[in-house]
């Protein structure tokens, strides 16, 4: 019997906790370097922050391009061999990536580091598949909300620590992130059980394991593809935060590394409060359909407000509103996983990851170039909030496939969720 055919260990009551910790530490490691990226790129390129942002967008796009190419393959491999080995490989690659970036003295080395991380950027998509393996459909909204809270909590400590370390040395946060990723790898190696049952594994099919093959597969399921389209367009807009927040703060408000870290920590704290304490009751009270729709509307409002915020205190006033926009991810993921067979959850998450990666190929370049075009001395109109306004318009556009999917498939989705709130909502509409 091969390892792939061996029965999965019982995941036990702590399996969910293992994955939450994995997401938390991974997000903390990722966000710890964000406050120093503007300074580091300015140092390496010997240019101003306004000009260095162009390279920041290109770095993010490189990461996303490699993730786009590898995402469905890793998702399909997790459907064949299990979630555990993919999670561990991803964490090991992240540890190596942060070390490479910490020693980088040229743009070429930075690009190599981000490309390596992109190839194995399976942590979040595989974590979602893991949760789908070990939870019942009716509990997935709360479960994905908890993952979102772990994501937010990572943002609380990561940027705050990164900002403080960045005040000492711009390289220090990278080595701290490497240590976190390595510790997380060791933790997972010894305690993380496999979640995918042998009967839910399937043969690896190269045709379904490439980005476009995954899209062809889900295009045969209109009830899923509408929501994938909405998530993909939404991802274009949501990329504004990892792609430009730190540069935007440095340019528009003259924030230091520590101030960028504090602002990101507040974003993480707000997201954690909403997703840990409120998402379960909100979905139960209003139904996942309404939560999805209203979270899109909240995102449009928050992004527009950021675009016109001319003082730092306004940014901090908007952050709690934007936190409620974080309900979009758990709500949309719940809808899609409930409509997908158990033996294809990894493939769904792989396709979803590829959509997000495709958005991250296009969006960072588009948004950073927009910020650059409207923030330099030669700008025709000085408006550093232009990138946020563009993101708001993209989010508005994402609601078109969202509404189309809800109208066309509301009965099937209500049946898939099997809860009173969804059934009542379907009947009322």
General description of the model:
- With 429 residues, the chain is an all-alpha fold.
- The protein has 18 helices and no strands.
- The protein has helices at residues 15-31, 37-45, 49-81, 83-103, 107-119, 123-134, 140-168, 172-191, 211-219, 222-238, 240-252, 257-286, 288-308, 312-324, 328-338, 345-373, 386-417, 420-428.
- α1 packs antiparallel against α6 (123-134), α10 (222-238) packs parallel to α16 and α16 (345-373) packs antiparallel against α17 (386-417).
- The chain is globular and about 60 Å long.
- The termini are far apart.
- Mean pLDDT is 80; it is low at 1-10 and 419-429.
Salient structural properties:
disordered N terminus; globular; disordered C terminus; 79% helix; 0% strand; mainly alpha; 429 residues
Average residue pLDDT: 80
Strand residue content: under 5%
Structural class: mainly alpha
Number of strands: 0
- Measured as a percent range, the helix fraction is over 70%
Q: Please give the alpha-carbon distance between the first and last residues.
A: 52 Å
Please give the oligomerization state of what you see: single chain
- Spans of at least 5 consecutive residues whose pLDDT stays below 50 are 1-10, 419-429
Tally of individual helices: 18
The gyration radius over C-alpha positions equals 21 Å
Shape: globular
Give a short account of the largest sheet: none
Instruction: Write the element-wise H/E pattern from the N-terminal end onward.
Output: HHHHHHHHHHHHHHHHHH
